Each structure stands twice: as structure tokens, then as C-alpha cells.
Amino acid sequence: MNLNATLIAQLVVFLVFVLFTMKFVWPPITKALDERAQKITEGLAAADKAKTDLALAEKRVGEELRKARESASDLRGTAEKQAAQIVDEARAQAASIVAAAREAAEAEAETVVQRAKEELRAQVAALAVSGAERILRREINAQVHAELLSNLKQELN
């Protein structure tokens, strides 16, 4: 065999191999590489989108927390106002109860005083009758009677 013929045969086999590889082997490999590059690109795009979505979600969470704090502050303020109002109403109610009890006690005291006066008048009347009986039993003397009545007047005052 000749070296030139071998070289030409190897060149032909190599060209057939290159054509076969370019026609049948290379397209699936480039297709797989392109698909892999596309998946990587999509994955990076999804990661960027997820990153922006996360930033937006964190911003929304911060806004919701701020709103919740404001709402809680408003509720606390309203509750404090209601508590103050309830305390004021309770104080007013307690003051009215105390005033009613005081009025009732004063009325009872007035009733007791009136009863005592009535009893005193009854006792004075009994004393007057008793004094009159004594006067009439002892003697009938105008001067002694006048003195006794004036003494009785002084006792009554």
C-alpha cells in the first residue's frame, strides 16, 4: 500500500466521519446544549422575578404591619376613652347613690327629730296637766299659780 493512498483513504474516512457527525451527532448535542442554556436562562429569570416578588412582599408586609400597629393604637385609644367614660359614669352614679343615701339619712334624722319633738310635747302636756292638778290640789292662789306657770314656761323654753 501506498502512503498517499492510505492518507487519502484516511482523509475520506475522516470526512465521512465529520459529515456523519455533523449530520447526525452534532444537532442533538447542540439542541441539548441550547435547551440547557434556555433552562438556565429561565431559572435565572425566575430567580430574579422571585427576588423582586420577595422584595414586594416584604414591602407589603411592612405596610400591613404599620397599618396593624396604627389600628391597634387607634383601638387602644378608643378603649382608653371608653374606660375613662365608664369610670366617669361610675363616679357620677356613685355620687348620686351617696347623695340619695345622704338625703335618706337626713330625712330619717328629720323624722326622728319630729318624733322626739312630738314625744317632748306629749311629755310637756303631761307635765302641764300634772302641774295643773298639783296646783288645784294644793290651793287656789293666783300668785302661786302665776309663779308656777312662769316656771313651767321657762322649763319649756
From TrEMBL:
Keywords: ATP synthesis, Cell membrane, CF(0), Hydrogen ion transport, Ion transport, Membrane, Transmembrane, Transmembrane helix, Transport. Coiled coil: none annotated. CDD domains: ATP-synt_Fo_b (cd06503). The keyword Membrane applies. The chain crosses the membrane at residues 6-26. It is found in: Cell membrane; Endomembrane system. It comes from the Bacteria. Pfam families: ATP-synt_B. PANTHER family: ATP SYNTHASE SUBUNIT B (PTHR33445:SF1), ATP SYNTHASE SUBUNIT B', CHLOROPLASTIC (PTHR33445). F(1)F(0) ATP synthase produces ATP from ADP in the presence of a proton or sodium gradient. F-type ATPases consist of two structural domains, F(1) containing the extramembraneous catalytic core and F(0) containing the membrane proton channel, linked together by a central stalk and a peripheral stalk. During catalysis, ATP synthesis in the catalytic domain of F(1) is coupled via a rotary mechanism of the central stalk subunits to proton translocation. F-type ATPases have 2 components, F(1) - the catalytic core - and F(0) - the membrane proton channel. F(1) has five subunits: alpha(3), beta(3), gamma(1), delta(1), epsilon(1). F(0) has three main subunits: a(1), b(2) and c(10-14). The alpha and beta chains form an alternating ring which encloses part of the gamma chain. F(1) is attached to F(0) by a central stalk formed by the gamma and epsilon chains, while a peripheral stalk is formed by the delta and b chains. This is ATP synthase subunit b. The gene is atpF.
